[in-house]
Amino acid sequence: MRAVADRSRRFWALSGLITAAVLAVPGANFVATAGDASNPPYAGPPSVTRTVTVPQPVTSVTVLSYGAPVQVTAGTVRRVQVTETVASAPGGGPVPVTQSVAAGRLVLADPACSSSGLPCSVSFTLVVPSGVSVTALTDGGQLTVSGVAGADLDSGGGPVSATLIAGPLTVRTSGGALVLDGLTGALDADTSSGPVTAQGLGSATASITTDGGNAQIAFTAAPDSLTVSTDGGLATLTVPGGPYALTADTNGGPESVRIPTDPAAGRLITVSTGSGPLQIAPPPPG
Question: N or C: which end of the chain has fewer CB within 10 A?
Answer without folding.
Answer: C
